[in-house]
Amino acid sequence: MVLLIPPIHPALANTPISVCAGRHDPIVPTENVAQLVALFQRCGAQVQQS
Fold it and tell me: Taking the model in full, what pTM does it have?
């Protein structure tokens, strides 16, 4: 699965986001989850990953 990166990042300052993903997910690799978390953080979100 390829992560879609928007050309313009949304303003998510102080927006709480919870990302839940399994370590052995056969559909979404852990690298993609890490990329998604990093993208949210660059947009200013407060990300909690579990």
Answer: 0.83
